[in-house]
Amino acid sequence: MKPVVQLEDIYKTYTNGEVQVHAVRGVSLQIQAGEFVAIMGSSGSGKSTLMNILGCLDRPTKGRYLLDSVDTSDLERNERADLRNQKLGFVFQGFNLLARTTAVENVELPMLYSPIRVPPSEMRTRAMKALDIVGLADRADHLPNQLSGGQQQRVAIARALVNHPQILLADEPTGNLDSRTSVEVMGVFQRLNDQGITIVMVTHELDIAHYCKRNLIVRDGKVVRDEAVADRLISAVEMEKLRNAEAAAKLIHSA
Questions:
Q1: Global pTM?
Q2: Measured between alpha carbons, how far is 152 from 137 in angstroms, rounded to an integer?
């Protein structure tokens, strides 16, 4: 199976006057469809630059990036924008919701910029379905200031899902949330991943990274560790599903 993400000897160098900053240095990695990956590292490690390259928001100085087998190296700006819109969904630390726009209208926004025209009735149907996936269909008509921080982030996740992306990119998605709400949001991500969505998440929080399946540790622009999560944390919702599945299996076995 071809990887959905393939980085080949990626470098990113920024020039500030006579000073060169080597943000990413020779990173090669693959991410398969259905993985849940955390990119971790301290401030200045290069993890955010790496995420920007994965999201086609920045070009590498050297190397090749294949997104779903498409070589992004030579794409023009509009082609890269179309690729982002079709293949990627973005979730940010700050939610980035429009203040005077309802939850469902915020979720509809990516479809307005889609190269393929979506009829208004289908936009509303898809937006409501996305809100239902994150458990907020009953808050569709609420403005952001009428929602809690966790609910706003779930609206942002629904917005990222509405164009059916192959990869969900999340940049510190729990950074503005308290511990309990962070766990709830990670439960949403785990549920989406269980449904087959590939997720790549930047985080500096070790406990949050333990909800993922694979951790990439970045230091000085290099991936210094790439490891499966041995003691993975499971959200309360997913744990309840496992208990129900085990109970059903025992019932079938005893019948």
A1: 0.87
A2: 13
Type of residue found at 240 = E
Domain 5-254 has CATH 3.30.450.40: no
Contact 158, 107 (CB under 8 A): yes
The answer to whether the beta carbons of residues 159 and 107 sit under 8 Å apart is yes
Phi then psi for 99, rounded to 5 degrees?
-65, -35
Bridge partners, 66 (sequence order): 6, 71
Residue 252 tokens, joined: 């079938």
> Domain boundaries in the chain?
5-254
Residue-by-residue pLDDT tens, the chain, 255 positions: 789 999 999 999 998 888 888 999 999 999 999 999 999 998 889 999 999 999 999 999 999 999 999 999 888 988 998 899 889 999 988 889 999 999 999 999 999 887 778 898 999 999 999 999 999 999 999 999 999 999 999 999 999 999 999 999 999 999 888 988 999 999 999 999 999 999 999 998 899 999 999 999 999 999 999 999 988 888 765 556 655 655 556 555 555
φ, ψ (nearest 5 deg) of residue 10? -85, 130
| Token pair for 105 | 């209208």
